[in-house]
Structure formats: C-alpha cells, structure tokens
Write a structure and sequence with these properties.
Structural class: alpha+beta
Largest sheet: 3 strands, mixed
Shape: globular
Distance between the termini: 21 Å
Strand content: 5-15%
Helix content: 40-55%
Number of domains: 1
Protein name: Zn-dependent protease
Organism: Cellulomonas persica
Number of helices: 5
Radius of gyration: 14 Å
Pfam family, one: Zincin_1
CATH topology: Zincin-like
Number of strands: 3
CATH class: Alpha Beta
C-alpha cells in the first residue's frame, strides 16, 4: 500500500478535476465530488462511486428539490492498488473520468470498450 496523506490525495483529485476540459466541465449539472477514506461495506475494492440521476435520464420534474449528484473517490482502496505517487495520480484521474462519464449517462460496458474501466 502506498502512503499518501489525505491532503495529498485531495490534491490529486483536485488536479484530476482540473484536467477535465472546460467545455465538458461546463456541461456538468448539480454534481459534487467528494473524497472518503473507505467505500461502503461490501464494496471494499470500489475506487469511485457515482450516485445520482445521469443527465441523459433527467426529466423536467427532476430539478424540483433534487439534491446534487455525488461522485465519491475512495482513498484507501486506491492507495492499496498503487505502488507510487504517479500510480495514485493516474488511478485517481482514471476514476474521476469514469465517474464523470456515469454523470453523462455512459455505462460501464461502454467505458470498458473505451478503455476507461
């Protein structure tokens, strides 16, 4: 397991978000990105999680009182599979792109086909 402080990991997530093209970031709607140390029980290997209603599935009634969608990046499972800081930065970037893709309605099968899973 690679050791990295919470602040350093937060910075890696922030840097990955900064790499998202501005045009794409501008199309993201009502979504928050969080970092947690551990994934939900039973999903110990999970690196990221999208919870919400993808943009492709939203209807006119969706906006009335909807909470923000959540993208959560899990620190400890990511550190478990990485050997270096560069590995962490790369894995975080992949995970951020993967979860943002879910926000845009792209499923895991398509992400695998595109090489983002």
């Amino acid at each position: 397991m690679f050791e990295m402080s919470r602040d350093e990991f937060d910075d890696a997530v922030r840097d990955a978000l900064d790499e998202i093209p501005a045009e794409l970031a501008a199309m993201m709607d009502n979504v928050v990105v969080l970092v947690e140390d551990e994934p939900p029980p039973g999903d110990e290997d999970l690196l990221g999680l999208y919870e919400g209603v993808p943009l492709t599935e939203r209807t006119d009634s969706w906006a009335a009182g909807s909470l923000p969608d959540r993208i959560t990046i899990f620190r400890n499972p990511t550190l478990e599979i990485c050997d270096t800081r560069d590995d962490v930065v790369e894995e975080v970037a992949i995970t951020v792109v993967h979860e943002i893709a879910h926000h845009f309605g792209i499923d895991d099968d398509r992400l695998h086909a595109l090489g983002w899973a």
